Every structure is written in structure tokens, then in C-alpha cells.
């Protein structure tokens, strides 16, 4: 069981590139296959952390690996969206670029302050992941952006602001911080509660 979290992370990494291959193929039902793989990828993301905490292997190294693979996976999903619906990406390019810039800034701010990338796995970031999934299902599965895309952008902005505040408040690098409020408590030397299903 202790190897399962690493296996799930590896599967998610592989899934991203498999999805790009499928998006470039002439397979039947490409869109539905991609949607199914995307949902499966999100499930691996949910359960790798839960299992890691259950079996006592939720280390800094594992959590950082998880964050890096998450980034690669969603970039692959975004690339699939571009391959299938480039007009959607072009139409919403400024919103997409803004999210990319905000994501890049979290790495810059964290590296400048702590010397390593951020790895908060904050609750708002998890919520953003859910809205991302819904938006990509809408775009890849049905060729539609609309409200799902708007919600993904909205929670992307809110989630990144939360991460900025976490980085600002934390006195030293810490992984699995539920929110900026919890980071504020940590700065004041107070203990925080982490939900066993979300943050160790």
C-alpha cells in the first residue's frame, strides 16, 4: 500500500501524455475517451494524498512530486483542448494568459522567499481543480466554454490570491496548508486543524 501513492502519481503523469496522443489520433469517440481519462486523472489526484496520509508516507518529497505532476497533467489537458477546439482558446486567450501568469508568480514568490516551489494543496486550489475539470469536460466533451469556463477562471484567480497570501504569511516553507487564514495562524505560532481527507 505504501507504493500506491507514487503509482497513482505516475499514472496521472502518463495519462497526460496519453491524452495528447489520443487527441492527435483518429480514434472513434475521442472526446468521450478524453473526458473519461481526465476524470480518472482527477481521481488519482484525490486518492494519492488520501492513501499517502492513511499509510503514513505523506512526505515533503511526495507532496512536491504530486504538485509538479498536477501542473504537467493540467497542461496536457489544456493542450488537448487546443488541439480539439483552438477557437475556444483563441477567444479566451487573455483570461488563460492571466491564469498562467498568476500560476507562474506563485512559483516565483515561493522560490524567492523559501528557495523552493509552493506546495500548499490549499482548499481553494482544490476547488479550482474541480471547476477546471468541469470546464475542460465542457470544452473537450462538448466544444463549449460558457459558464463552466467563467467559473474556472474565477476560482483560479481567487485560489491564486489565496496562495499568494499563504506564501506571504508563512514564516518558513510548509506543505499542505489549507488556506491563507491557516497560514496566518501558523505565523502567529498557533496550531491548525487539517482535515484528514484533504490536508493530512
Poorly predicted runs: none
Output the radius of gyration. Answer: 17 Å
Number of helices: 8
* DSSP, total strands: 0
Average pLDDT for all residues = 91
Percent helix:
over 70%
Q: Class by helix and strand content? A: mainly alpha
The coarse overall form would be globular
User: Biggest sheet, in brief?
Assistant: none
| Intertermini distance | 17 Å
Encode the helix/strand succession as letters. HHHHHHHH
Strand content: under 5%
Architecture overview:
The structure is a single chain. By secondary structure, the chain is an all-alpha fold. The chain is 76% helix and 0% strand. It is built from eight helices and no strands. Helix 5 runs parallel beside helix 7 and helix 7 runs parallel beside helix 8. The protein starts with a helix and ends in a 13-residue tail after the last helix. The model has no long low-confidence stretch (mean pLDDT 91).
Main attributes?
mainly alpha, 200 residues
Could you provide a short overview of the structure?
By secondary structure, this protein is mainly alpha-helical.
Helices, strands, pairings?
Layout: H1 4-23, H2 30-55, H3 60-84, H4 86-91, H5 93-114, H6 123-142, H7 146-169, H8 180-187
Helix pairs in contact: 1-2, 1-3, 2-3, 2-6, 5-7, 6-7, 7-8
Amino acid at each position: 500500500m505504501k507504493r500506491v501513492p507514487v503509482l497513482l502519481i505516475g499514472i496521472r503523469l502518463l495519462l497526460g501524455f496519453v491524452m495528447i496522443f489520443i487527441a492527435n489520433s483518429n480514434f472513434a469517440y475521442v472526446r468521450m475517451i478524453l473526458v473519461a481519462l481526465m476524470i480518472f486523472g482527477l481521481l488519482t489526484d484525490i486518492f494519492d494524498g488520501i492513501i499517502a496520509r492513511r499509510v503514513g508516507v505523506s512526505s515533503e518529497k511526495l507532496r512536491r512530486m504530486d504538485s509538479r505532476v498536477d501542473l504537467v497533467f493540467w497542461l496536457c489537458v489544456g493542450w488537448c483542448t487546443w488541439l480539439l477546439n483552438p477557437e475556444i482558446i483563441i477567444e479566451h486567450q487573455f483570461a488563460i494568459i492571466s491564469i498562467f501568469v498568476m500560476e507562474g508568480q506563485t512559483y516565483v514568490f515561493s522560490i524567492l522567499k523559501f528557495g523552493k516551489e509552493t506546495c500548499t494543496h490549499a482548499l481553494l486550489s482544490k476547488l479550482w481543480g474541480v471547476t477546471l475539470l468541469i470546464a475542460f469536460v465542457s470544452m473537450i466533451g462538448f466544444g463549449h466554454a460558457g459558464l463552466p469556463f467563467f467559473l474556472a477562471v474565477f476560482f483560479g484567480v481567487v485560489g491564486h490570491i489565496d496562495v499568494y497570501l499563504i506564501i506571504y504569511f508563512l514564516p518558513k516553507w510548509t506543505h499542505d496548508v489549507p488556506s491563507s487564514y491557516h497560514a496566518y495562524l501558523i505565523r502567529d505560532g498557533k496550531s491548525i486543524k487539517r482535515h484528514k481527507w484533504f490536508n493530512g
